[in-house]
Automatic annotation (TrEMBL):
The keyword Methyltransferase does not apply. Pathway: Protein modification; protein ubiquitination. It is a multi-pass membrane protein. It comes from the Eukaryota. This is Peroxisome assembly protein 12. GO terms for biological process: protein import into peroxisome matrix, receptor recycling; protein monoubiquitination. Component of the PEX2-PEX10-PEX12 retrotranslocation channel, composed of PEX2, PEX10 and PEX12. The keyword Protease does not apply. Residues 25-289 form the Pex N-terminal domain. It comes from Coemansia erecta. Keywords: Ligase, Membrane, Metal-binding, Peroxisome, Protein transport, Transmembrane, Transmembrane helix, Transport, Zinc, Zinc-finger. Gene3D superfamilies: Zinc/RING finger domain, C3HC4 (zinc finger) (3.30.40.10). Belongs to the pex2/pex10/pex12 family.
Amino acid sequence: MEFMSDMLGGADAGKPSVFELVAQTKMTELLEPALRHITSVYAHRYPRYLIRILNLHEEVYAAVMLVVERHYLRNYGGSFTEHFYGMKRVRTRTIGGSKALTGGNVWGSLVFLVGLPLVKSRLDQYYDKISGGDAARLLGGAFAQERHIEADADVEDGAGVRADIRRRLVRLLAVARQLFQRFYPHVNFAYHLSTALYYVAYMFDRTGYSSPWLHVLGLQMRRLSAADYRAMDMRTGDTSGLAAAPNGSVLRGLRNIVARLLGGGLDVLRVALPLAIFFYRFLEWWYRSDFHQRVQQKPVPPPPMPLRPHPDGVGVPVDQTVCALCGRPRTNPAMLPTGFVFCYPCIHRHVADAGTCPVTLTLATVGDIRKLYADA
Ligand SMILES: [Zn+2]
């Protein structure tokens, strides 16, 4: 029982449990695909503006999160999801009697919150590209190597000093690429292993740091206390008393209003982003379950009845493979919207001359004729 209460952070009420930290990380990982999904849905509707954003999605997302996370770190002492789970970051060393984050701590946190995931995702993509992606995983490394040899062969021709330098540069890049290809999986493994080890050590109280990045920054996670919430309320209360701001400085007043509007917008995200994740999860479930298929599967309606042949028309031949116009077996079958099929040359000539369907005598143009690719 003691062990369980330790896992739940029972001994130190301010220490978040591993479960809270993992949940927080999972939520961070869900934000990006959720927003990407919503962007791609709207990109279908407004492709002119959103396709560009979609192509640069990771960079745009990083830029947006830089603003969001900076706002939350500065005002609430934790990242967006950390604050959502009622946590904050504190310095392990007190400076001036306070453990609150300094400007340097905020930027250091941003490097690991926004910069590192972006760089890692780019490196992952690059590794997938040079190692041949899924094809190489299935067919073995030979597939990827063949592609490189092909690429290198392109620059092997040419003479002179410049070509020589180029050739050397290409070879150097090839060596760098090979080294990267060889060692990146190990780096990646170390990355995941270190975070896992930190979680375990944190769970057994061997370290106060829940991740290697926080250790580097000298920051620890704490639960938000009642005093923290009161302090936050006080601060938002302070800024609302804008009328009492020192008089004379119109510019500062304006700046305050802009900052408050921006801050208010960013605070709305506390509701909007979790809703986006919920929406994304719902869509995921919706498309994966057979529930939506059951809703969408309506019985196929009967085809519309063909128009009745006009008494003054050419009439429908008894043999359905015969063209009503020439009386011979159809060649190059073509159809009118009325549903009757003729030889293409016959119906083209007839419609060009008479402008009607020969059977029903309804109006038709040459543009209405549809070629049939399976002989009826
Ligand atoms: Zn014909």
